[in-house]
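Question thread 4412

I'm putting together a teaching handout and wanted feedback from people who do this every day. The idea is simple: show students a protein as raw sequence, then show them the structure tokens that encode its fold, then repeat with a second protein so they can compare. Below is the first pair exactly as I plan to print it.
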Amino acid sequence: MRFTAAICILLMFVGVFTGCTARECAGLPERLTLYLTGERRIITLTREEYLTGCILACTDPSFQPEALKAAAAACCGHALSVMNERSPAEFMGADLSDDPGRCPAWISPEEALEDYCAGQESTSRKLTAAVKYAAALCPEYGGAPAYTPVFRCSTGITDDGGLPWLPSLELPEDSACPWYSSTCTVPAEYARKALRECTGSVVLPPSPGDWFTDPEYTPGGVLLTVRFGDSEVTGEQLRHAFGLRSSAVTITVSREDMTFTSRGCGGNTGMSAYSAERLARGGMSAEEIFAYFFPGVAL
């Protein structure tokens, strides 16, 4: 199959790298284990396979080469920071997981490339270059691996990550991203049942319009918590319950229906891949893009 062949060619040319020579960071191991949360199993893969899946999970392979490289570097830093401080029992004993709430998002490269680009050689070349660029990197701040998350697009303003290299950034152009918004409209009774796993038995007011109250948002618009009757749910729980693209969720009620709308795609702290693409089209290098989102982090 041509898609599989393209992946084989991609990984063949990526090659094997020795990791960075930074003082306290050895870079990603040549082989690592990944816990697939949906399948509840652990797979073993090369770091090149891992980084390829991370890049495809947070970008579009049609992006500019420098944007792909910058995103790959961010994925590498995020993964290394998790591996540096995780407990041995986390992820069922694997090095990392594909849970984007904790680790870089990851998808199967073969499946992703089938959906995106039908195995085009130009795409394989760009991905190869991005993986080569990032595989030996060790993004650091103060001599330790730096947490450098990357996501598809922001709400228009990223949230401050509480670390010196994770500032809030205004990115109004992200609203033009095709992944920017998602909506789910369901009957109120369906919403109640969908949230039962999160809340258990819950006492709700008679009117669905009064079910959700007292929402708390970050400055970037991410929903932290909202009262649901006599219980409480998070924006992340709403995101998963209703298949939304982010936890920057707003809720509207019309008669007996509820509409859940999200802005942005993925997280909202760190690098917006969509804005990285815009900066690359403006002439920025991967290093300049990375520094824009993570000031002070050394590659």
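The second pair follows. I'd like the answer to focus on this one:
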Amino acid sequence: MTMNSISRSQIYVLDQDEALDFYVGKLGMEVNTDADLGFMRWLTVNLPGEPDREILLEKPGPPALDPATAEQVRELLTKGALGGHLFMTTDDAHKTYEDLVAKGVDVYDEPTEQPYGIDFGIRDPFGNKIRIGQMFPRA
């Protein structure tokens, strides 16, 4: 058996419209799928030119979670104790950082040079952490 690629990641959000404002409006992603399935809204975004690598912006609830578990997830997310993690790359970490700061994005870690490159950390409105890195060429 061989795995070919990672096609979709998932993070919890409390408000899908607010998530769209952040991921599309501030980070420059594109809406991939926005479908009302009746029992849930299937909402995915992707980086421009990367439609086969989606992020599902999922509200905690059915069908994935029973009501009691969904409430616990919402409480943990609201407290900042349950955030997903996304990792993205950029060609220029300092410029991307400046652009995101100008858009009012919550930065929790400023650009820092690491052995692998320069990276920094931001948070979405729901506490999910996103690392953005400018990777050094591999030796």
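Top answer:
Good format. For the second protein you could add a caption like this: Residues 67-78 form the longest helix (12 residues). The chain has one domain: 8-135.
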